[in-house]
Amino acid sequence: MQLNKERYNRQLLLAGFGEEAQLKLLQSRVLVVGAGGLGVPVLQYLSGMGVGKIGIIDHDVVAESNLHRQVLYTTNDIGEPKANKAAERLNALNPEVEYIVFNELLTTGNALSVIGLFDVVVDCTDNFPTRYLINDACVILNKPFVYGAIHQYEGQVSVFNHNGSATYRCLFPTAPEVGVVQDCNTNGVLGILPGIIGCYQANETIKLLTGIGELLANKMLIIDTLFNQQRTIRFQPKSDLPQITRLDSDDYKSLCGSARLRNMSVSELASRIKNNEAIQLVDVREDDELAICQIADSIHIPLGEIVAKANKIDGSQPVIMICHHGIRSRIAGEELLKKGFTNIFNLTGGIHAWALEIDKTMQVY
Amino acid sequence: MSHTILLFGITKDIIGGSVHETGNAFTTVGELRRHLYNIYPQLEKLNSLMIAVNNNYANDDDRLQSSDEIALIPPVSGG
């Protein structure tokens, strides 16, 4: 590959960077999700600095109220699709970069195929459902993502899922209830803040791609721009989270509703089994009780081990908790919700009700 | 004894101000968490609320000292 030595001259001169790092950038593929407040500075610097291939995904159009912070766009762009406009401007900045434009929302339907085309994702979104979608898709595809988020005068930056480092869910297993945390549209934001946080994200992305310096992996940088305070919080990956094997079929919309333990009657369970629906049965009784009777195809995790062994449960399917009468299974279900599971049912009346109403040959005790 | 807690993100709005004094001492992070959830039920609706002690992520069974620097760090979505 041929380097443009003039364009990248100041980086080629830089001790610790040079031609080797510049070539790595040239061969890299980065997806920027969201071409708004955070996405604009990320896109501008990644383009200017010479990342080889940049994906831009955004379904939105430019609004007048965006312009105070999304300074890549002009007043004439109001009403135009952001992804297209961004690519046009960035191409003028650096035509050596290949831009791949996705004029759409990142969804459960396209996330794996789109993210699969890139080495690194930069999370520049403005809502929880897409943040959790990016996390889960990156975990499934084993790709790192550079996270940034802002609230009023404050920002957070981190690098998640990089070589086994912690994921977003290690810190925040489940999203807040709807309306508890407002976005910039409601809360307001100073134009400069996403510029600062986005620049940190771009910086982490460049470091990640070229292997220089120390990344914010297993660390979160919190910046308070009003009082010029910065702190770095350290953390470790969590091993007891539910394994992510599939994306939420509802585009993570329900995730921002409150995850509550729901009840399932034995007759409903019987009909789901009859219809061959994908469900996971988790029996939380003790070994000696299991020896007496059990419902076919249930996995066994005694109540006392439910937290430690939660990763054996496939959270992408409805999970139905079972015990003798429905008391222990309720406790176990609540524990799983705290761990980040969202689709949990408690079998009302437990296996006792099942034996009385559905499978009358089953031994009761 | 009391703990001083630094507040970030939406916890500033929920509790009011950027610092909170607990008024009494707590033995573990979990005890402190339950105390805060009791007085400020909105905190529990965050579903995930990181408590950092001396700039390290703390688990609910971690023990607290009065000299610890405690921070409440909620999820943030803006972009």
Describe the model:
The complex is a heterodimer of chains A (365) and B (79). Chain A has 365 residues and is α/β, with parallel strands linked by helices. Helix content of chain A is 32%, strand content 17%. Chain A contains 13 helices and 13 strands. Chain A has helices at 9-13, 18-26, 39-49, 82-93, 111-115, 128-141, 168-171, 184-187, 192-210, 266-274, 287-292, 328-338, 350-357, and strands at 29-33, 53-57, 98-102, 120-123, 145-151, 154-160, 219-224, 229-234, 262-264, 280-283, 298-300, 319-322, 344-347. In chain A, the strands form two sheets. In chain A, strands 3-2-1-4-5-6-7-8 form an eight-stranded mixed beta sheet, sandwiched between helices. In chain A, strands 9-13-12-10-11 form a five-stranded parallel beta sheet. Chain A is elongated and about 80 Å long. By secondary structure, chain B is α+β, with helices and mostly antiparallel strands. Chain B has a single domain (4-73), classed as Roll (Ubiquitin-like (UB roll)), CATH 3.10.20. Chain B contains three helices and five strands. Chain B has helices spanning 10-15, 29-39, 41-44; strands at 4-7, 19-21, 50-53, 56-57, 70-73. Chain B has a five-stranded mixed beta sheet. In chain B, strand 3 (50-53) and strand 4 (56-57) form a beta hairpin. The radius of gyration of chain B is 12 Å and the shape is globular. Classes of the chains: A alpha/beta (365), B alpha+beta (79). At the A-B interface, strand 5, strand 6, strand 7 and strand 8 of A face strand 4 of B.
Kindly provide the radius of gyration of chain B, computed on alpha-carbon positions and rounded to a whole number of angstroms. 12 Å
Label the structural class of chain A.
Answer: alpha/beta
Proportion of residues in β-strands of chain A: 15-25%
CATH class of chain B: Alpha Beta
Spatial strand sequence of the major β-sheet of chain B:
2-1-5-3-4
* Overall pLDDT level of chain B: 94
Query: pLDDT under 50 segments of chain B (min length 5)?
Result: none
Q: Assign a percent range to the helix content of chain B.
A: 25-40%
Query: What number is the mean pLDDT of chain A?
Result: 92
Fraction of residues in H or I helices of chain A: 25-40%
Shape of chain A: elongated
Alpha plus pi helix count of chain A: 13
Q: What value does the Rg of chain A take, in angstroms?
A: 24 Å
Biggest interface and its residues per chain?
A-B, 46 and 22 residues
- Global structural class of chain B: alpha+beta
Family (chain B): Belongs to the MoaD family.
Keywords (chain B): Nucleotide-binding
Protein name (chain B): Molybdopterin synthase sulfur carrier subunit
Pfam families (chain B): ThiS (PF02597)
